[in-house]
Amino acid sequence: MDDAEATWQSWLSGLAPSKRAAAASLRTQFEALGAADAPDWARSEIDENLPQMARFMLLRSLWRGAIDGWAGPGALEQVAAARRLLDAGADRGDLVLLARAIAYEAVFATVDELDCGGDVNVSGVVVGWVVMESGEDGSPTGRLLSGLHEDLLTTDPSGRDGADLWR
């Protein structure tokens, strides 16, 4: 048993049985989803009562759809400008990389704005927003999904933390 697993087991053994079961289940779910640091995500959710599974699922979904979706067959060809570039001999791989990098930047800017909770450039306006976890029935749990921009790179399904976007 390595140090990380020993630390996990030690932490787990100190929990009440109901929390121990919840933690083990969360870790298993995170691992099944491919989370690199599954024990850390699970432990944070249990210890800090943070909706880490919801955060992970949202960010992973954004990667798969908005960012990596550009690599799919026909995705570029649906954009007239990209189709013209391809017809002119542009490298499809480079265009996919460009589209994914731009999509990443757009997703990052969006989740960063959501994390702010309001437009910091406007004064005197008393409205804002929050992103909140919901239960299976869609009703809010009251647990906020905050700091989304902090974990966007770490939820890259490829495990590369987005490093390929800037090659």
Q: Which helices and strands occur, and which strands form pairs?
A:
Blueprint: H1 3-13, H2 17-32, H3 38-48, H4 52-67, H5 80-87, H6 92-116, E1 132-134, E2 140-144, H7 148-151
Antiparallel strand pairs: 1-2
Helix pairs in contact: 2-3, 4-6
Overview of the structural elements:
By secondary structure, this protein is mainly alpha-helical. It is 54% helix and 5% strand. The protein has a two-stranded antiparallel sheet with strand order 1-2. Helix 4 packs antiparallel against helix 6 (92-116).
Q: Using only CA atoms, what is the Rg?
A: 20 Å
- Give the number of DSSP strands: 2
Q: Which structural category fits the helices and strands? A: mainly alpha
Low-confidence stretches: none
**Beta-strand proportion:** under 5%
Compute the average pLDDT: 95
Main sheet makeup: 2 strands, antiparallel
- What percent of the residues sit in helical stretches (DSSP H or I)? 40-55%
Number of helices: 7
**SSE pattern, N- to C-terminal:** HHHHHHEEH
Descriptive keywords:
2 strands, single chain, 167 residues, mainly alpha
Question: What is the structure about, briefly put?
Answer:
The protein has 167 residues and is mainly alpha-helical.
